[in-house]
Specification:
This protein has helices at residues 2-14, 18-23, 30-49, 56-70, 73-85, 89-129, 171-181, 183-203, 208-227, 239-261, 280-296, 300-308, 311-340; strands at 158-159, 162-163. It is mainly alpha-helical. Helix 1 (2-14) packs across helix 3 (30-49) and helix 1 (2-14) packs parallel to helix 4 (56-70). It is built from 13 helices and 2 strands; from the N terminus they run ααααααββααααααα.
């Protein structure tokens, strides 16, 4: 819910005019994808280096649920598709190149910032526990095991005869551990979010479609999470993420064709216009594209997999995903435009 809501807000921050968005080399979810990929990389790296401080459920909640809904592959793919059919080859190529480069770089930058954060936090923690400790240099090294499937490990540093794990945890560690490990806290948080979403759907008539889209984002994220469980079925090809991104892109294109056939314009953000003034069909398409498809697809996991796969397999996986998504959606939209003798240009 929060990931989808932040995505809609960030789209509105970047583009307040639909015509400006259509002609820009940046895709509509550009800012949301950059932020989501950074948070994904930061959390993933922090969890791999700081195994005991970050429970698995916290890592999954941030990377798979929030970042997966904050970033959207289907919206990015749809934006490219429209540029292609509007005969904008320059913006199409630039948008694709800039998007892939920036989203991938955001994941790497998140990795680096996590290492820097962990280094500074541990040094401050050690100095707080040992105020008279002489100046020392603490260095973190990732040791990747050769055995396939094992997680990277990190050497344990000894300070005055005591290991780092024996020192008191920082406030950040205690907060994360309490929130992620307490069933009661999670139930209360989920109940409050559900209650707030329900009240917003009932009373906020102007942005009701936004809140319904947030509700459908839960369904999309749930489906994507279960599809991710089959990622290891095909070696060096995350078939679950691939399936989620392609299916979401196809559904989004079908929804667009329906709206275009009925002359309905669907904004990509609730900042762009008053959604209550749009027809029921337009609001339904908005919910499907931004809620269901936006959260069913993900660019953060896609970019993370681009980094973790072997180089050749990574290029193959990236190209196959983008080409299949573009061709399948182009076939749907092209067939309709050809049959109706219409054009987007």
């Amino acid at each position: 819910i929060l990931g989808a809501l932040f995505r809609l807000i960030l789209v509105g921050v970047l583009f307040t005019d639909e015509e400006l968005q259509a002609s820009s080399v940046l895709s509509a979810p550009f800012l949301a994808n950059v932020v989501g990929c950074f948070v994904f990389g930061f959390t993933k790296e922090l969890s791999s280096l700081k195994v005991k401080a970050l429970p698995a459920i916290f890592t999954v909640a941030i990377t798979s649920w929030m970042c997966g809904s904050l970033t959207s592959f289907s919206s990015w793919n749809h934006d490219l598709l429209l540029k292609a059919f509007r005969k904008q080859p320059g913006p199409y190529i630039l948008s694709m190149g800039i998007g892939i480069a920036c989203f991938y770089s955001s994941v790497i930058f998140g990795f680096h910032m996590a290492r820097a954060f962990l280094f500074v936090e541990r040094v401050m923690c050690f100095r707080a526990c040992h105020p008279l400790l002489e100046e020392k240099t603490f260095r973190y090294e990732r040791t990747v095991e050769l055995t396939h499937g094992q997680e990277p490990t990190i050497p344990v540093h000894v300070v005055d005869g005591a290991t780092a794990d024996e020192h008191p945890r920082s406030i950040v560690d205690l907060f994360v551990h309490t929130v992620s490990s307490s069933v009661l806290v999670n139930v209360i948080l989920a109940s409050l979010i559900s209650l707030g979403l329900t009240l917003a759907i009932i009373f906020d008539t102007r942005n009701r479609a936004v809140w319904i889209a947030c509700f459908f984002s839960v369904i999309g994220a749930f489906l994507r999470y279960h599809l991710s469980r089959i990622n290891t079925t095909v070696p060096h090809f995350p078939i679950g993420t691939f399936t989620a991104n392609v299916i979401a892109s196809i559904i989004s294109t079908i929804a667009f064709v329906i709206s275009f056939a009925n002359g309905v314009t669907v904004p990509s953000s609730f900042f762009a216009s008053d959604l209550s003034a749009i027809s029921a069909l337009g609001r339904a398409v908005f919910v499907i594209q931004q809620g269901l498809c936006g959260s069913l697809s993900t660019f953060s996991s896609f970019a993370g997999e681009m980094h973790t796969l072997p180089v050749v397999k990574s290029y193959l996986y990236t190209c196959v995903t983008i080409v299949i998504s573009q061709l399948s959606c182009a076939a749907i939209l092209g067939f309709y435009l050809l049959a109706e003798h219409k054009s987007l240009a």
